[in-house]
Amino acid sequence: MGASFRTNPATRRVAGWLAAVCVLAVAAGCDGAPGIAPASAGVPSVSAAAPDGSTGTPSASAAPEDFVEALPAALRQAMTGVSWRAGCPVGLDDLRLVHVSYVDFDGKVQAGQLVVHKAIADATLRVFQRLRAGRFPIRGMQLIEHYGGSDDTSMAADNTSAFNCRNVPGTSHWSNHAYGRAIDVNTVENPYLPKGQVMPPAGRAFLDRRDVRPGMIVAGDATVKAFQAEGFAWGGAWKSGTDYQHFEKP
Q1: Which residues are registered as beta bridge partners of 116?
Q2: What is the spatial distance between Cα 113 and Cα 249, in angstroms, rounded to a whole number?
Q3: What is the pLDDT of residues 70-117, one digit of tens each?
Q4: Using only C-alpha atoms, what is the Rg of the chain?
Q5: Residue 246, SS3?
Q6: To pair with 88 at 20 to 30 A between CA atoms, which of 8, 211, 214, 238?
Q7: How far is CA 246 from CA 137, 227, 233, in A?
Q8: DSSP calls for 37-90
Q9: Phi-psi region of 215 (alpha: psi -120 to 50; beta: other; left: phi over 0)
Q10: Per-residue confidence band for 187, with pLDDT thresholds at 50, 70 and 90
Q11: Are 68 and 122 in contact (CB under 8 A)?
């Protein structure tokens, strides 16, 4: 996903948001838009401060690209009419952009981004720092705008994402994703099973939860414990509508 940036935090943020502008231009032919942040690899263990002074909680596994910030203007514009619109149950001012690196399926460190509610932003940062330290592989972590706001397309791409102003599939009530209080992780390896369906369809290859393969989340594992330590509930424990990819903190 590109070389790491070793400049100061403000410069990194500006560079990262050059890609966000590309999201706005997708319809005009900006093909193959990269992830909305630059990649990071081999970076020293420090944590950068966000513009509003929030840094998350530094840890031994922190990287310079790990920080929380208020939504930049370019992202607010990109989200409007895509993942957010007037009438959504949370306003843009209550959301935060979490920058955190992760380990991909090739064992390389990549830069990721999630939009979550400000109340869980620091907790989200800590969870993914723990997952990175434990070398839990994540396929990708791009904002839902990269997929035109389509949850189905994002899931099919095995993308890890959070905020999206949408209903629970097949219902008329808001998902916790619409509040920025839910995160889906490795959606193919950890499918959602509503009323006999498998979402995404490629998740059928992972229905046998006894056959644990890279990227899968199973009861009592380090991923579940990392989220539970920060107060998140796991959808994989639900008796109906089992949702192995889903963590939420209502």
Answers
A1: 96
A2: 18
A3: 999 999 999 999 999 999 999 999 999 999 999 999 999 999 999 999
A4: 17
A5: strand
A6: 238
A7: 16, 10, 8
A8: S----S--S--PPPTTS------TT--TT-EEEEPPHHHHHHHBTTTB-TT-SS
A9: left
A10: very high
A11: yes
